Amino acid sequence: MKRRQLVKGALWSLMGALCWPFISFVRHERFRPPVEVKVRKGLKPGERLLEQDFVLFMTGKGPRAVSRTCTHLGCRLNFIDEEGIFLCPCHQSRFSPEGRYISGPAKKDLELFRVRALEGEEGFVVEIPRRLT
Ligand code: FES
Q1: Nearest Cα residue to atom 1 of ligand 1
Q2: Ligand 1 atom with least separation from CA of 71
Q3: Beta strand extents in the chain (DSSP E only)
Q4: Whether 48 contacts 57, CB under 8 Å
Q5: Looking at residue 133, what is its pLDDT?
Q6: Which residues does a 6 A CB cutoff place in the pocket of ligand 1?
């Protein structure tokens, strides 16, 4: 009986040792640099620019890039000028221009992207993080 347990334990240890490199490779999170979108346009305070993946607002405190991807199921949000909100065409979630959740099935705020000034030119660089799939 003791011998059987010893062999069983040794086999499990051997299986773990053999599988560990594969498991650690699969679980390993690789660094992927963000996608940089260049906006070659200056904005005055109060102005905004609608892009494919974000809306760039120029506030009194500087630029703010708010994601247009809904936090519910990922539909692309529209920005409604008259109401000054983001509205999801899929299930009507609403978000403020700051990206805060207002109503609807989405429960999380929108993602804010890093923005920096474009060097040597008028404009901005917006960093969109890449997601691991
Ligand atoms: S995908 Fe936007 S509310 Fe459902």
Answers
A1: 73
A2: 2
A3: 35-39, 48-50, 54-59, 62-67, 78-80, 85-87, 94-95, 101-103, 112-117, 124-128
A4: yes
A5: 37
A6: 70, 72-73, 75, 88, 90-91, 93, 104-106
**Averaged over 32-37, what is the pLDDT?**
91
Average pLDDT over residues 76-98: 96
What is the C-alpha to C-alpha distance for residues 79 and 25, in angstroms, rounded to an integer? 41
Encoded amino acid at 104, one letter: G
Tokens at residue 22, please? 């594969």
Query: Which pTM value belongs to this model?
Result: 0.77
Pure H helices in the chain: 2-27
CA distances from 115 to 17, 63, 111 (A): 45, 7, 13
Residue 7 φ/ψ, nearest 5 degrees: -65, -40
